[in-house]
Amino acid sequence: MKAAKEADIGIYWDAVISHKAGADDVEEMQVIEVDAKDRLQEISEEQTIKAWMRFDFPGRKDQYSKLKYHWYHFNGTDYDAGKDRSAVFRVAGEDKHWAEDVDELWGNADFLMFANLDYEHPEVRQDVLNWGSWIVNELGLSGFRLDALRHLSRGFLHEFIETVEKSTDRRLYWVGEFCDHRVDLLSQYLEVTDYKIDLFDFPLQANMCKISKAEDGDLRTVFQDSLVSLHPTNAVTMVENHDLQKGQVLEYTVEGWMKPIAYCLILLRREGYPCVFFGDLYGTKGKAGEEPSCGGKLADLILARKLYAYGDQNDYWDDSHHIGFVRRGTHDKPDGLACVMSNTGDAEVQMHVGTEHAGEVWTDVIGWHQESVIIDEQGHGVFKCNGVSCSVWVRRDAPGRGEFPFNLDDQIYN
After folding, report:
1. Domains of the chain
2. pTM for the complete prediction?
3. Quick check: is 35 catalytic?
4. Annotated catalytic residue: which of 118, 177, 198, 271?
5. Of the N and C termini of the chain, which has fewer Cβ atoms inside 10 Å?
């Protein structure tokens, strides 16, 4: 955290507060088995099982929190250790039930996995509230990523955000994982949570995936029914994540050829708050391991965002396979950029970057197109990209241009 602060990097904590795993011991309890596909449907009488629900935290030695978790702090589990049997079990007992203010997946989405926390229990509520306030100040966090929101009590979520924000003098950022491709469902969640939390744009990622696998995909439809198109200030855009990557149960990957285009669309445009996947930047390992995506150019696209992706935005989306857009810059970041992309053959798109750029020579910072463009007196340029590729054009002598590996300064311009 100290090194991050010195580099002016804010850290968000990935908070998994819907369930616990890795218990210290099993405990006996009364449960009722429910239908895994309809958690409101009971399919057994009350029975006794042994489940991993005892959390003693011996290493903590009562520091920070003295609470020991037992079966009555939870309302569900998915494993009977006594019979070595997996199923969905709801904990039985007075006032034991699923939370009602959750998504309706599987009838009621409160239970996801492992030992599901019961936020109707006052000790659980207070312990997690105390933890949130402690960790944000202990580490100097800038915000949180909240895991599995559709499985978390909305009432407790409101209380958690309010309590944690009151505990610190910093402005915190909140983003949540509500894994669903239906934009209306995500929009409803934003509304019921009073827009206090942003959401990952799973519908946009699904569109990218579909276009990347289609024989005749229309690039102009990429933002159709996406969260960023409806709620641009509440959408965290992404191309891939740890759950969707190759080899995972929820695998839903964007094909490699599409990833440079996809990252141009989330990094260089005005709308959304882009999130870069570690595996795309550095590669992944394991049986389904992959090399870094975008031909190793993802860092260049991130740098292009930092230096040039500012100001008004003009789209040139007249062709289903060759599209482009321009960022016009601002008074303090005046350079702007022009981006062209294609999912078929070579492309060229005439775009207006402004008369203030007349006579300038622009080049592709990622170096996949090695010609140059001279802006005419009306502020237009014909910007090109190779087939199934993209290009990002800026003034050849723009501030920071020398930080990119590809530079045409010593070459003859066409």
Report:
1. 18-100+110-117 (2.40.30.140), 123-307 (3.20.20.80), 313-403 (2.60.40.1180)
2. 0.95
3. no
4. 177
5. C
